[in-house]
Amino acid sequence: MNLTGQMMYEPLLLSSLLRHAARHAGEVEVVSCLVDGGIHRYTYRDCHARVMQLANALTGRGIVAGDRIGTLAWNGYRHMELYYGVAGIGAVCHTINPRLFPEQIAYIINHAGDRIVCFDASFAPLVEQIADRCPKVETWIMLCDPFDLPRPFPVQLESYEAFIGDCAKDFAWPEFDERQAAILCYTSGTTGDPKGVLYSHRSLSLMVYALVAPDAFGLSATDTIAPVVPMFHVSAWGLPFAAPMVGARLVLPGSKLDSESLWNLFEQEGVTVSAGVPTIWFGFVDYMCREDKRIERFRRAIVGGAACPPGLTAKMRERGIATVHAWGMTELSPLGTVCAPSHSYPGKSAEARARIDVKQGRAAPGIDLKIVGEDGVELPWDGKSVGDLWVRGHWVVDRYYGSDHSALVDGWFPTGDVANIDTESYMEITDRSKDVIKSGGEWISSIELENISMSHPDIEMAACIAAEHPKWGERPLLIVVRRPDSALTVAELLAYYDGKVPKWCVPDDVIFVNELPLNATGKMQKQVLRLRFGKQLVKPDA
Amino acid sequence: MNLTGQMMYEPLLLSSLLRHAARHAGEVEVVSCLVDGGIHRYTYRDCHARVMQLANALTGRGIVAGDRIGTLAWNGYRHMELYYGVAGIGAVCHTINPRLFPEQIAYIINHAGDRIVCFDASFAPLVEQIADRCPKVETWIMLCDPFDLPRPFPVQLESYEAFIGDCAKDFAWPEFDERQAAILCYTSGTTGDPKGVLYSHRSLSLMVYALVAPDAFGLSATDTIAPVVPMFHVSAWGLPFAAPMVGARLVLPGSKLDSESLWNLFEQEGVTVSAGVPTIWFGFVDYMCREDKRIERFRRAIVGGAACPPGLTAKMRERGIATVHAWGMTELSPLGTVCAPSHSYPGKSAEARARIDVKQGRAAPGIDLKIVGEDGVELPWDGKSVGDLWVRGHWVVDRYYGSDHSALVDGWFPTGDVANIDTESYMEITDRSKDVIKSGGEWISSIELENISMSHPDIEMAACIAAEHPKWGERPLLIVVRRPDSALTVAELLAYYDGKVPKWCVPDDVIFVNELPLNATGKMQKQVLRLRFGKQLVKPDA
């Protein structure tokens, strides 16, 4: 005989977050960099009013719950309005990565069945290319004023401002099932067609509660938050939801993401927290060192999307900026782990702390992790056992959009990463499961070997692959880009591994190249390297 | 046409919080002060194992989902085990306030229909008094080892350790509807029978996510958290759930809550954060001043349950301890508002900040507030308009336990407090609605007048009531306790109000008493004062 609690029930909806900000932080600003170099400012109260106009415009045009609306846009206020306006009425905001190849973008728009696609002016040439391949799109909306519309244009366009212009600034947000879809984001896998992850209002709301915690991103009302990570990449890691939730100021940097532009923006707007991939921060801190710049209020850079190399943390710290090392995936909304100090961390030696800092971190509450062997049996958390990383939790994918089979195994999502977990629950990714090097029955971490190489002052970029080997099955092979003026030799680089890894883990050889192959989102395409260099150790004279 | 998100669904259950701690902070300690002066220590992993034993014991005894299990206990590890073990199997942990009068306790146990009541040894005399008035209780369990059971005893007793002793340390936590009841807590109203608030797994889980945020209690894994607020008082404000959620160390101070014991405990155990009512912190900081003590790691005292007077904040700050001013109610689980800095706070003058610091604060995300006039119409947030405070949100009561009508008005819970809300959304309680003084059509805040009095060095405690007045309807009358050696006069105390409030708000008279009437939970019983002194100004010679 169950007994139901007697507390108020309200569904967890994204519209509540913005309404909360409009009521409880109504005067706090959302600042956006415009394509023309200008700055747009308004308050959460203004933002909410325009989002209500958008909701009226969408419903007036017959958009109903469950419909998909695509976006091709940088981080800016109109993109933010689309997040809330579309999801608020129960429709789905489908954020499209404009860096994909046009044919992939067309594939995604068709696969999602977008009824409307909204795009920034800078993507008009892209839309010109793909529009006739997307016959199901009824309306193309450019995020601009009416007089900025390009003419002629192969398909009919509307301007966003005209679309919402006459609509009332009042809208009664509907209450609906919190498990209803809100946001759709496709993963840019390195192989195969992109796969869509369909986030619900509930999954995002719970993720955002976990995100603001001190041991995650630690966000408060006094922060000014600038997501450098794009809003088409896993909802800019949830920051456009987290900032209104806590009443923080939000700075959306638009399309100019070069280090000088970012530094100027952060300094002028008093940004306190930002988030982005390591590449962004490497450039940012290099710029600061080169120009001998400090920065007034910027204190915390959240680093995710790829492992945060120790060298980056140290360089950032010298400039007064702490790095917060986080790990996640599109399939995890994206919050998985954050490398925040555990209870025993403050009492440890500097060396022990440094060993922890490079790890991906501990599971956010709401997420559980395990590592399993090839037989699917859970492995011990001893910091040594290495296995496939599986996750579960409130904001983990269940199945990909449009797929009729589960993405899970025994209720867990296999991440495709290979990791160890130590006695204090710090998880460390050692490889992608397809990148691990299996040498004579032992597993060698390609990431560890790459990181060592990257810490050499003469190396700009490094990849380590499993090359076929007649005796050992596979052996590590290093492929690196030297800095322009470097004369580093193979022998010198290999000698650099002495004492850093066991003898049998040192790469067998080094190949110098001018550039490494990256996919549209900047991820290393190791499969290309394996195709080209995978047999290098079998035929050393190839 | 709705579209359901395709994310994993797991109900929000309290058992998940402890399991998370056991897996991800398994070696972190729960420290409990025992009645005999000793200290008990174990880890979250140990705690989880014993909670699983308890779950086996309860189900073995036929306890099923929805059954109520009462507790009469201090803050300690067995009480914590009862929270998780009882709620984990879907039954309801009913935390009883042992400071109520025995007849109220018997009323509550019968009203709740508790099948089992578990109690600390120190409450054995109380149980002796009430046991025969609680015929529906099947089993009385004393939280002790078998050989500590008192004999003879009017009813048959079991010891907790024997009850769980032989049970397996393994239990598959059931998944059930997250809206199912988990914890039951009765409010100690100043009038009428106590009313039960029945928290659900969902309402508590969401409240705890909001609680750990930087702008709420700001809890992290590196903290050592000591809830001084009792576990029978709104789940110790959620801290026994929040500490495992973030992997913080938890220190449960047992029954010795005098300042010296607390100081020693906090110093020895390295407590970083604590929570309690202002009375606790007044005593604590007085002790520190008197004994000229500092404290090593204690940095944050959460102050709730009554307004935090400015004098307390200043005194605590001098000793290196920040106060976090929070407001809540049993009906709010209890988190309502926290006086954390808004975005514009850091840029304000010291005076402006001081004016903000005394306010109850801004709504936690998940809670909405409004103030309404006597006609139920919402009043503006201008810092001046004063009205009845209404709240709504994920962890607000819907109806009292056993009541067949809603506790809400138009979907909002009327708190019984009178408040203003300023342009930056800071809420300030000026009165309980029944305590407000209505003088010639103007409202005068009794709390403001009390606070001024309390800031006088000669005043130990003050109450201000509405006394009948032939001309003005009501006028403020002050009833105060002077410090033992004080010779303060009525005229001197009234003169102290000069320049602090408008002339017409200064109390008409002062009555010196030796003590003020408090109820069982330490709340001022103004209705007693009104009965005794309410006509003082009509018949000044009474």
List keywords for this structure.
homodimer; 542 residues; alpha/beta
Strand content of chain A: 15-25%
Major sheet summary line of chain A: 9 strands, mixed
Please estimate the helix content of chain A: 25-40%
Oligomer: homodimer
Structural class label of chain A: alpha/beta
Through-space gap between termini of chain A: 74 Å
Give me the count of strands of chain A.
Answer: 25
Shape assignment of chain A: globular
Question: Briefly, what is this?
Answer:
Two copies of one chain form a homodimer. The first copy, chain A, is of the alpha/beta class.
Folded structure, characterized:
The structure is a homodimer of 542-residue chains. The first copy, chain A, has 542 residues and is α/β, with parallel strands linked by helices. Helix content of chain A is 28%, strand content 25%. The first copy, chain A, is built from 16 helices and 25 strands. In chain A, strand 8 and strand 9 form a beta hairpin. In chain A, helix 1 runs parallel beside helix 9 (239-246) and helix 10 (259-269) packs across helix 11 (278-290). In chain A, 52% of the residues are buried. The mean pLDDT of chain A is 93. At the A-B interface, helix 1, strand 9, helix 7 and strand 16 of A face helix 1, strand 9, helix 7 and strand 16 of B.
